[in-house]
Amino acid sequence: MKKLTLLACLSLGMISFGQVSFSSVPIGTTHSDRAAVDMNGDFLDDIVSVATSSIQIFYQQNDGTFVETTIFTSPADNTPSWSMAVGDYDGNGFNDLLYGGGNGVTFMRANSSGTAYTEVSFPEFVFSQRSNFVDINNDGALDAFVCHDVEPNVYYINDGDGNLTFHQGGIGDYPTGGHYGSVWIDYDNDGDMDMFNAKCNVGGDLNERSENELHNNDGTGVFTEVGAEAGLEDQMQTWSSAWADYDNDGDMDVFVGSSTNGAPHKLNINNGDGTFTDISASTGINAMAATGIENCTYDFNNDGYADIASNGNILLNNGDLTFTLLNNVLPSNNGCFGDLNNDGFLDSFTGSHIYYNDANTNHWITINTIGVESNRNGIGARIEATSALGTQIREVRSGEGFRLMSTLNTHFGFGEDTVITSIVIKWPSGTVDTLEDVAVDQVISVEEGSTILGLEDHLVDTLILYPNPTDSVLNLSSLSGFDTPQFAVFDLQGRKVINNSKASKSIDVSTLSQGTYILKLFDASKTQTQKFVKR
Q1: Which of 64, 159, 179, 300 is least enclosed by beta carbons within 10 angstroms?
Q2: How far is residue 516's CA from residue 529's CA, in Å, rounded to a whole number?
Q3: Reduced to 3 DSSP states, what percent helix, strand and coil does the chain have, rounded to the nearest 5?
Q4: Going by C-beta distance under 8 Å and a sequence separation of 6 or more, which residues neighbour residue 443?
Q5: Contact 420/386 with Cβ under 8 angstroms?
């Protein structure tokens, strides 16, 4: 392994436009640059560059340096020449890779320590385009989806043990394809993931092959194409779209990026009833003449409004459904986005360079989701963050834009707000976690079902803790009624401060700081919780 320190003072250059600027710093990737995502389970975004028989990873450290290692693999039948997606589809705590190639699909499955990968290739021909990990049938296991350029789309259903089965058809069935940019979103706020399919007829005329599609999920993995009814069945040449709540009104809107010179981009606002309205003319987005294949969305200046990255340009959201164009802020493929120095501002990685976002004074929070009943990454979760600015929403997604893979951590900006009134996480399983009065400018991890409002539902008088308050040892009145009980301890923001351990009638809490906590006592079928005070 080799430790690298990247300093902005060594940057090749700074690009600055208004409220957003980036500093370019080289990093020594030698393979095909594809992802900025956590690969070792510490929730710091790492850098991933791949080749046929190896995976080069630059592991981000807490101090902003990187440790480089190359993991050799058996040769991949397919490399990610067209796209890569990342997700922990076997639930072992380490992310796996999906390679979308021109002839088929390969998975690189991480072992239980993240130090080796097993190549799993499927024999079916797939001319891959955008790929994603997503729980298609909402059974708690992470499935995979791949756009097919010349046939109906394909997907791989997980049996819950990490075994995938190939399927074709039912989610984008145009017989000669044209399926380029899938993104999984909950556009109708019904708690399941729908799919928008950006379509293109490369080198040809606008026709049915290039009609964008919206696939509505009934919650069981049965999809109905509703693009025409929703107002999104445009005949336009596009390879990707960017979905966010651009007006912070509680539902997902969509920017559809044109890939053809001279053809306009479109911004469609969600009407809240399953339909969309094209408001492009009033927004300023078509001051951007440049077209291309990469479009995605993040809050780059942490002001509380989602911006749009489009082929190296940024459309900066002014907060009133108008946008200010910043030309050539990033390389033309946008890059992979993640927080690559852990400062709360999103950076980009591509072409053996990191483009560090030069921070301003706006506030932020990063939320790491840990699924329990849902998939381990929490892909498909809806997160709502409320502050004086209002309520913002995000979704945990694997695979946005066209080709690259960005962070699985969830990022919010809050402008000048210093307190987050509430954070609500709506998991794919239906579980809802709530945190209240959360400080800004921090990274938090939330395990599904672990926060205070969920725990307080189980507070019982029969669980007696003594002495309470306690200095060091907490005694339990009884463990009766539990089969192999375990315990965990949470602070009043819902953060786990003592991990799950086998329960006994005496628990050492001496390492805790002074304050009020909740003890959770549980087994496979029963949960009890009770508050205690550590002096």
Answers
A1: 159
A2: 13
A3: 5, 45, 50
A4: 43, 342, 344, 365, 366, 367, 368, 409
A5: yes
Distances (CA, A) of 464 to 205, 526, 528: 73, 16, 11
Check residue 420 and give its pLDDT. 97
Report d(CA 506, CA 5) in Å as an integer.
Answer: 46
| Nearest partner of 529 among 469, 438, 465, 436, judged by Cα | 465
CA-to-CA distance for 418 and 402, rounded, in angstroms?
35
Q: Pull the structure tokens for residue 182.
A: 């899938």
The tens digit of pLDDT for each residue in 322-376 reads 999 999 999 999 999 999 999 999 999 999 999 999 999 999 999 999 999 999 9
First to last CA, the chain: 44
| Edge-to-edge strands, sheet with 46-51 | 2-4, 66-72, 54-60, 46-51, 32-37
Q: Is the pLDDT of residue 470 over 80?
A: yes
Cα separation of 289 and 471, whole Å? 66
Residue 486 pairs with which residues in a beta bridge?
502, 522
Are 383 and 393 in contact by the 8 Å Cβ rule? The answer is yes
| pLDDT reading at 13 higher than 50 | no
- CB 127 within 8 Å of CB 177: yes
Give CA separation, 296 vs 36, 394, 447, 532, in Å. Answer: 14, 13, 27, 46
Tell me what pLDDT residue 444 has.
93
Cα(298)–Cα(276) distance, rounded to whole angstroms?
Answer: 21
Under DSSP, the state recorded for 470 is B
Radius of gyration of the chain (CA): 23
Q: Give the whole-angstrom CA distance, residue 304 versus residue 444.
A: 18
Neighbours of 282 (CB within 10 A): 9
For residue 281, the SS3 value is: helix
Can you tell me which residue has the tokens 């290692």? 69
Which of the 8 DSSP states describes residue 228?
H
Q: Tell me the per-residue pLDDT of 159-169, one tens digit each, with 9 for 90 and over.
A: 999 999 999 99
Q: Pick from 91, 93, 52: which is nearest to 75 by CA?
A: 52
